Amino acid sequence: MRSEKRKYTRFLAQEKAYVALGTRFTKVGKLQDISIGGLAFRYIENTEDCVQGSSTVGIFVSEDEFYLPDLACRLVYDAPLYVIDNTQYSKISFRINRCGVQFTDITEYQLEKLEFFIDHYTRKLMPH
Description:
- This protein has one helix and eight strands.
- By secondary structure, the protein is mainly beta.
- The protein has a single domain (11-123), classed as Beta Barrel (Thrombin, subunit H), CATH 2.40.10.
- It has a six-stranded antiparallel barrel with strand order 2-3-4-7-6-5.
- A hairpin with a 2-residue loop joins strand 3 (27-35) and strand 4.
């Protein structure tokens, strides 16, 4: 059995939690998991725009008034998971990516809102 070597406990996000990466919301997708140290989300890649290095990320919950904007972060990975190829029916295929970021230089206020989000919109990941 492999032990987890993460510094912070990860939590699974509720279905209605989303992430927007970059100041122009270059990548928007479904929040997968989160910790005090960072998060991971899935999104449909539909452009060649690439966010590298440092950026910001915003967390929001649909059908709720929760929004935590402008968390400073560093892109850790942005990797393809799979391709949805519908070219037999249309000329469009999509690539689903998983993106992970590490928070950097977040303010005390942002940390408080992040802790609130974790307490109210997530559940702890169960070890396997």
